[in-house]
Amino acid sequence: MPEVALSVLDLAPISEGATAATAVRNTIDLARHAERLGYKRYWLAEHHLAPGVAGSSPPVLGALVASATERIRVGSAGVQLAHRTPLSVVEEFGLIDALHPGRLDLGLGRSGKQLLRERADRPPAPAAPPPDAGVLIPPPPDAGVLIPPPPDLRGLTRSPRLALTFGLLQQPGAETPDYGEQVADILALLEGTYRSPEGLDAHAVPGEGADVEVWILGSSGGASARTAGERGLRFVANYHVSPSTVLDAVGAYRAAFTPSKYLARPHVAVSADVVVAETDAKAAELAAGYGPWVRSIRTGQGAIPFPATETVAAQAWTDEDAAIVADRVRTQFTGSPKTVAEGLRRLRDATGADELVITTITHEHADRVRSYELLAGEWGR
């Protein structure tokens, strides 16, 4: 298969000992490097009440990135619709489009309590992997991509801090709206065709007529994949979030796809966690904090500041810790440029991806910039 475009997914991570202000400045700096290096898109994620992530508002951070760059597409991956209204989303992105027309990607995520319950209902892995299964050693080229067993996330659904997050994000008594209906309303508001159930029209200013490319994000073969397919929209399969279900997600999307005015054929981007350094050993060292960082998310405390190598070395690590993060850690692509590029090509081939979206977190910002630089150089050979 031919090479596909690479893009960047940035969480605006806060490193141990750093501040949110530093993280935002690093995001702006990385976006400028990504544009110089030829990455196609620069996407911002949405996270809340996470001490180690500054990316709480993709529209705000996206506006800053768009103003600091010239050509690279900028967008969300994604806006969490569980606590947003279609009008607020369209107006926010319409404001950015007013100054940066034709450069915006509106990635829509489902999120919310219902989605978390669905993930928790998936059967857990039958047995914990060995505790030392920390860094993915890529299989031979003909072995395909690693699809691990699903993790057991039932404990996450009982997290009081997660309940607090949902409580603060939504109005008292509010229910998560129907995702498909929200997507339909966003498309109608962008196109100027919105009508209320009572027959009243509404026109978002700014927003209506904005040249925004709409994407749907999904981690399974459920509602998000079906909505993207049925609406004929672009779809992002989150291998870096849920590697066990990536093939289900892209399969469900393609099965549901109906040609539309947006797309004549399915278009899939697949995300991947990546750390590249000059050698495999150096990359493994830079990625050492990833396991504890994922553990903090999956235990409900929210992403911790990304730990330094010496902090990781001093932490206790149990079999239970290893099991809860095994699927994510084992599917992180770490190594030299050649090692990682070979792994990403297997991911591309296994999923039929039209694009790959790369997310990289290291303790030192310079190492993160260097990782994207090395990968771009190898991918473009």
Keywords for this entry:
single chain; 381 residues; alpha/beta; 8-stranded parallel beta barrel; 15 helices; 43% helix; globular
Main sheet: strands, sense, barrel: 8 strands, parallel, barrel
The count of strands amounts to: 10
Helicity level? 40-55%
Q: What ranges have pLDDT less than 50 throughout 5 or more consecutive residues?
A: 125-143
The gross shape turns out to be globular
Radius of gyration: 20 Å
Order of helices and strands: EHEHEEHEHHHHEHEHEHHHHEHEH
Number of helices: 15
Any overview of this molecule?
The protein is of the alpha/beta class and about 375 residues long. It has helices at about 20-35, 60-70, 85-100, 110-120, 155, 160-170, 180-190, 225-230, 245-255, 280-285, 290-300, 310-315, 320-330, 335-350, 365-380, and strands at about 5-10, 40-45, 75, 80, 105-110, 210-220, 235, 270-275, 335, 355-360. An eight-stranded parallel beta barrel has the order 1-2-3-5-6-7-8-10, surrounded by nine helices. The protein is globular, with a radius of gyration of 20 Å.
Describe, in short, the structure shown:
Helix 2 (58-68) packs parallel to helix 3, helix 7 (179-191) packs parallel to helix 8 (223-231) and helix 11 (290-298) crosses helix 13. Strand 7 (234-237), helix 9 and strand 8 form a beta-alpha-beta unit.
List the SSEs and their pairings.
Elements: E1 5-10, H1 20-37, E2 41-44, H2 58-68, E3 73-76, E4 79-80, H3 86-99, E5 104-109, H4 112-121, H5 154-157, H6 160-169, H7 179-191, E6 212-218, H8 223-231, E7 234-237, H9 246-256, E8 268-276, H10 280-286, H11 290-298, H12 309-314, H13 319-330, E9 333-335, H14 337-351, E10 355-359, H15 365-379
Helix pairs in contact: 1-2, 1-15, 2-3, 3-7, 7-8, 8-9, 11-13, 14-15
